[in-house]
């Protein structure tokens, strides 16, 4: 199975001169073969010396320059024998990317009592060097290259590095201010920029409304194709079908803007301005945007847009995220809760056999088109919420499973968790709100590891707990 999270890895096998160079090269080749088997995108050291190993502290600068030029986003530093902690520490400090520290388990001493590698001892030394230089790092327990714990830790690291790379380059498009009633989505734009380098790119709702009208009037061929595609996939149940082109045009305007600006995600004021200006509900447009790879949060929830981009990166872009409200408890299952929103869940997540409906918004005044309506599939789901109490930022993360439950309007799934009263207490005490990002898969360990590389963002795992995540990464079942 390929590791295809689109992270370019700097492969830095290392050794120390007092141990066997021949064995170090042997293990470098064994590890390379495993990376090739997993189809990892990596840059090695074959250009540096005949051994393709880092062992001289004087070489770290040349390696750093080469890796920067190659666009390396993470470092993998396998110790093929003891290793050279000074070179590893300085390289990691220079590049400031996620670092994976690991080494293959040592063999027994030879019959004459000599040892060829002492890899584990060198790992302790390199860990201390990284700590002394204040460089965060990921560690996989010393094991054989074919042990399941190595693959588990490696895959988790690559996915976490993808989250970090996404987070560090976030540009969030903000369309309009938050709805007046929603104090819960207040965000500090200056603080996000100063603390995390997250840029918020504003655009007035009025300019988007005007561009939408122009697109409808122009009889754009892209608009006609998008509308025809939507009609093929969804049963139309709107009162005013003449509003459908407006809804689709609004979505296309946002999509074009996001692509022009290089935006990572959007946070859009979906009410009440759009209903007043265009008579539409944009929920189905958000559904289409997310499936087009542009995570979009309702109600100008900037923190929500950030977490959508993060969970999408955690999944390697292999499945679309969704934004939902925690709403009501299951009438018969005390550990299940309704994850719902008006109609922005991506169509790609629709449960098998479900008929997608395109309807009027059923909460607002009648006649506003269009919202999607369907239940999404079951399976493992990870949920996350980034928020702040005004001092610290934290990332709530937890795992549950989609389960059966009563029909409701909109887009939804019933999520069963281990202990709903515990989750409820966590949400009430905060600093979280009713909005949450969902993604298919068991990805809490990925988000947990990513926080290691984001100063000021504290991981807040609920299920599995922090201790359970750490034990799983060490190889617990």
Radius of gyration: 25 Å
Largest sheet: 6 strands, antiparallel, barrel
Structural class: alpha/beta
Oligomer: single chain
Structural overview:
- The protein is an alpha/beta fold and 477 residues long.
- The chain folds into two domains: 138 residues, Rossmann fold (3-Layer(aba) Sandwich), CATH 3.40.50; 303 residues, L-fucose Isomerase, Chain A, domain 2 (3-Layer(aba) Sandwich), CATH 3.40.275.10.
- 38% of the residues lie in helices and 21% in strands.
- The protein contains 15 helices and 19 strands.
- It has a six-stranded antiparallel β-barrel with strand order 11-12-17-16-15-18.
- The two termini are 20 Å apart.
Q: Which features does this protein show?
A:
single chain; 477 residues; alpha/beta; Rossmann fold; L-fucose Isomerase, Chain A, domain 2; 2 domains; six-stranded antiparallel barrel; five-stranded parallel β-sheet; 15 helices
Brief characterization of the structure:
The protein has 477 residues and is an alpha/beta fold.
Describe the protein's topology:
Elements: E1 9-11, H1 21-37, E2 42-43, H2 60-70, E3 74-78, H3 85-95, E4 99-102, H4 119-132, E5 138-139, H5 148-168, E6 171-175, H6 189-196, E7 199-203, H7 205-217, H8 221-233, E8 235-237, H9 244-261, E9 265-268, H10 273-277, H11 283-291, E10 296-297, H12 302-314, E11 322-329, E12 336-341, E13 357-360, E14 369-375, E15 379-388, E16 393-403, E17 411-416, H13 420-429, E18 435-440, H14 444-451, E19 457-463, H15 466-473
Parallel strand pairs: 1-2, 1-3, 3-4, 4-5, 6-7, 6-9, 8-13, 9-10, 14-17, 16-19
Antiparallel strand pairs: 11-12, 11-18, 12-17, 13-14, 15-16, 15-18, 16-17
